[in-house]
Write a structure and sequence with these properties.
The protein is mostly helical. The chain is 86% helix and 0% strand. Helix 1 packs across helix 2. 0% of the residues are buried.
């Protein structure tokens, strides 16, 4: 491994550690938990809507109305 690769690995490790600490900080805060749960729920529902849309288009259901 070269010096550049080691630097990249260290930088990535520091970023992961920073994100993990940020997530733990949010989990300990009341409003942080609301933010984490709300963002998870939002993207989960958004994904379900897109999944339904692609299934409807794939099966050709949109032309039957």
């Amino acid at each position: 491994m070269g010096k550049d690769q080691v630097k990249i690995i260290v930088i990535n490790y520091n970023k992961m550690k920073l994100l993990k600490n940020f997530k733990l900080e949010l989990q300990n805060n009341k409003y942080g938990r609301y933010l984490l749960f709300g963002s998870f729920a939002f993207f989960f529902i958004k994904g379900l809507i897109w999944l339904g849309f692609f299934i409807a288009v794939g099966l050709g259901i949109t032309n039957s109305f």
